[in-house]
Design the sequence.
């Protein structure tokens, strides 16, 4: 069994060596004429405004956390699936209890709105707007 | 000692064949993509380099080798270089456990058609490797210090982790059917016409959708949505580093097609062919036929990937998240429940 | 056996090295990535113990989910390079030195014990580490811990949502207060 993993390790090493050779060859072949404008950050031709390393929306973090918890669920489902036929109804009910408890979590997150992302609400002008100017 | 040398020799041959196969696949799929998209859009497509433009991808690779590598001065140089290496490395790594055919028997020696298709953890390996693939893209987005890159990287990471769950759940219903984690075992369980696409159509749809999302292919190519994010996470990449992301995309597509054909399309199984041909187990002819069947299925899946890309518009981000979390995840659980109940009564 | 030992040695040394990088580097991303590398080295250690399932889970959950979360946090909060700590000899560092000494003593004892007793893998370690065996054990002998895990996860989900909501609310209140001032 360990030999199989050993081969996978060797394969990884060969793969990374292969990628490394690609990079080195490119490094030897390619020209290098840097200048300040070429090396500036791309922002559609405008002068870049500040850096990109800014604070971000926290919902990505909440999403990653929820993912982590459900990932653990999938991990527990795997060994269950493999021995399912040997264990029978008992294991089935056990797993239903497990999944239902986690589904309560999913329902909670769902109800709290952490799974719903902001929808774009485009303003579509109608003929009426053209005739009667809107008063703000 | 002699035994170890033999094993290493066989392994070396297999590794070189598989790596060159992946590279060739990536090049061929780039060409296919351009040709098929041309046909779909009523154009001619590449036709200058070589007959029918067949040498176009090689010319592209040569061009990428000779292009200057531009790293923005505010970027983190180390991670900027590391990210494409991780991405391509992960794309390669999945092929370590893909069995291309059953096995070859030479004398007393049984040679499996893959690096290690029989490891006990089987599909877990694929799941683990795809979960590591997030780093390549996230790091690429972060290290460029570019707003488009960062947004693309974050979006992509959130997308990949969301669909990983649905993918895992789809696979669990397959495992319920096969009771075996190894890919060879899953293929053997689909002998004849017992393909999982017929027995588990819902799981197939879930898996297909999530593998589109995992490989960042259209209609889930939001990380590189051109109209809003320029190039997404690879905006600041050029030369060979960009080429590596590009190759990785197609290598990932190849891996995804190979895995879909193993899990759902029966791998090298095909009704009646083997009974009709009557080759012995482990003979060279049998392995060749199996290889052809498998590659044909894989090619069909690749065609499907390309076909979809040029037919369906891109999802919006909230639609993407809704589909992953509110539709595919509950559907996957429901599918497991139904499969479990049915299996109890069989 | 010697090959196994070689793999063990390499992954153990690299695991310790990457662990040291994790705690000593100033750049938070470097710290996170070296922790990911550390997890991969732990995979090597698990495999030498024939624990294949645990090894795969190590990558899937730790490297693929927990560290993604950490990397997200680093990116979202945009944590800059760590400033040099001002307090050179505080209570914390004294405590750290004490623990280092205790750990050294522990290592000394462990290595002396290893010399005298013969440690080897159990006969059926390879089967024990397989997914099938873990499934069987988990769903027959360890039902209660297994079901308890689901409650733990539920608590974690609710906790995550509550904490994130409270942060947002307090921010809003803060900005409201500012406007009123």
Sequence:
């Amino acid at each position: 069994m360990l030999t199989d993993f050993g081969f996978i390790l060797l394969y990884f090493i060969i793969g990374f060596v292969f990628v490394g050779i690609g990079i080195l060859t490119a490094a030897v072949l390619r020209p290098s004429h840097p200048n300040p404008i070429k090396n500036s950050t791309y922002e559609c031709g405008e002068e870049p405004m500040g850096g990109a390393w800014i604070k971000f929306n926290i919902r990505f973090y909440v999403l990653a956390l929820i993912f982590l918890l459900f990932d653990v669920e999938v991990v527990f489902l795997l060994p269950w699936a493999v021995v399912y036929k040997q264990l029978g109804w008992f294991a089935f009910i056990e797993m239903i209890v497990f999944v239902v408890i986690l589904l309560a979590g999913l329902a909670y997150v769902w109800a709290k709105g952490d799974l719903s992302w902001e929808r774009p609400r485009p303003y579509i002008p109608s003929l009426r707007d053209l005739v009667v100017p809107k008063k703000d | 000692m002699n035994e170890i040398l033999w094993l290493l020799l066989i392994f070396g041959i297999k590794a070189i064949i598989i790596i060159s196969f992946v590279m060739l696949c990536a090049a061929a799929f780039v060409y296919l993509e351009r040709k098929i998209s041309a046909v779909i859009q009523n154009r001619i497509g590449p036709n200058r380099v070589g007959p029918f433009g067949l040498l176009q991808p090689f010319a592209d690779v040569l061009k990428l080798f000779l292009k200057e590598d531009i790293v923005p001065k505010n970027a983190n140089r180390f991670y900027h270089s590391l990210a494409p290496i991780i991405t391509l490395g992960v794309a390669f790594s999945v092929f370590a456990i893909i069995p291309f055919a059953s096995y070859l028997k030479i004398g007393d020696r049984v040679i499996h058609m893959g690096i290690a298709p029989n490891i006990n953890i089987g599909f877990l390996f694929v799941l683990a490797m795809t979960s590591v693939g997030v780093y390549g893209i996230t790091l690429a987005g972060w290290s460029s210090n570019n707003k488009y890159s960062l947004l693309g990287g974050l979006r992509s990471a959130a997308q990949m982790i969301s669909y990983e769950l649905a993918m895992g759940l789809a696979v669990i219903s397959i495992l319920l059917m096969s009771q075996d984690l190894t890919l060879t075992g899953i293929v053997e369980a689909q002998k004849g016409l017992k393909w999982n696409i017929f027995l588990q159509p819902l799981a197939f749809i879930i898996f297909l959708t999530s593998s589109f999302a995992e490989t960042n292919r259209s209609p889930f190519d939001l990380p590189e949505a051109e109209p809003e994010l320029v190039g997404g996470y690879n905006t600041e990449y050029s030369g060979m580093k960009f080429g590596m992301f590009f190759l990785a995309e197609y290598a990932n597509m190849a891996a995804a097609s190979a895995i879909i054909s193993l899990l759902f399309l029966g791998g090298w199984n095909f009704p009646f062919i083997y009974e009709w041909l009557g080759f012995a187990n482990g003979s060279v002819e049998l392995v060749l036929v199996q290889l052809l069947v498998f590659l044909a299925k894989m090619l069909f899946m690749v065609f499907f990937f390309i076909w979809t890309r040029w037919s369906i518009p891109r999802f919006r981000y909230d639609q993407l998240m809704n589909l992953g979390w509110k539709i595919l995840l509950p559907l996957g659980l429901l599918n497991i429940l139904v499969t479990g109940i049915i299996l109890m009564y069989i | 056996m010697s090959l196994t030992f070689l793999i063990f040695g390499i992954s153990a040394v690299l695991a310790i090295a990457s662990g040291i990088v994790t705690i000593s580097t100033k750049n938070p991303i470097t710290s996170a990535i070296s922790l990911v590398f550390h997890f991969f080295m732990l995979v090597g250690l698990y495999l030498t113990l024939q624990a294949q399932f645990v090894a795969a889970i190590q990558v899937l959950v730790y490297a693929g989910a927990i560290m993604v979360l950490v990397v997200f946090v680093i990116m979202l909060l945009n944590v800059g390079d760590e400033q040099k700590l001002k307090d050179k000899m505080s209570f914390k560092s004294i405590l750290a030195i004490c623990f280092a000494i205790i750990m050294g003593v522990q290592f000394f004892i462990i290595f002396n014990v290893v010399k005298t007793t013969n440690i080897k893998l159990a006969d059926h370690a390879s089967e024990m580490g397989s997914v099938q065996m873990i499934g069987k054990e988990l769903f027959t002998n360890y039902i209660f811990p297994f079901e308890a895990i689901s409650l733990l996860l539920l608590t974690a989900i609710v906790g995550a949502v509550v904490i994130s909501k409270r942060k947002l609310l307090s921010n809003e209140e803060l900005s409201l207060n500012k406007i009123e001032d």
About this structure: DSSP finds 13 helices and two strands in chain B. Chain B touches chain C through 24 residues (CB under 8 Å).
